[in-house]
Amino acid sequence: RRPLRGHQATCTRMWSALARRVVARVVPAARPQPLGAWGSFVPPPWRPAKVFAQTPVRSMNNKTNMTTRRKLGRTTSHRLAMLRNMATSLIKHERIRTTTAKAKTIRPYTEKLIKWAKRGTLHDKKLAAEVVREQVALMKLFNVLGPRYAERNGGYIRIVKLAQYRKGDGAHMSLVEFVDRPGELRVPRKPRNLQEAVAA
Asked: Rounded to whole angstroms, how far apart are CA atoms 190 and 175?
């Protein structure tokens, strides 16, 4: 085997020294440990090195998925301003056409506004006034949409995916609209009773 020279030898020495330092800190020196309750050998405590201190450890029992919302390729201020404009337009027109990613992002924000409108307290009105940009849309939120969904527990918005794509980048398009309103795209079916469900 040809010996390493120059740059290869330097890199090899550097990585070997780093590996020795990591192993020396991760794997403690072997020393006699007391026996456990069942007479088995108790391994020495594992002390992680500083190299792995920045790596988050996630337990299988405490797994988190989708903890962050969509960024939509924008900065935080731009994204929040866009969501405020979209929520205002949706309240004003009750149906808007946008991309599927934006539609899925705007739904929880708008449903929270409906929850505030259903309660209708002064604090809820102040919270909604910080989001809704137009006074007309704010009045419609509390005077029309709040009483309309007073007996409905969630599910105020419907997302209908379109079969056409946006020209230019081919993004998936969708329609976002409020449910239980005149002129909606898809009228919800009436719930079946228990006997019809069992017979089917």
From this structure: 23
Residue 29 tokens read as 């020196």
CA–CA separation, 200 and 194 (whole Å): 10
Q: Rounded CA gap, 184 and 94, in Å?
A: 9
Token couple for 124: 């809820």
54-89: per-residue pLDDT in tens? 434 444 445 566 566 788 888 989 999 999 999 999
Alpha-carbon dihedral 172, 159, 185, 155, rounded to 10 degrees: 180
Q: CB–CB of 181/148 below 8 Å?
A: yes
CA–CA dist 113, 83 (Å, integer): 12
Which candidate, 189, 125, 181, 180, places its Cα nearest to that of 152? Answer: 180
pLDDT of residue 99: 93
DSSP 111-145: HHHHHHHHH--HHHHHHHHTT---HHHHHHIIIII
Paired tokens of 101: 């990613």
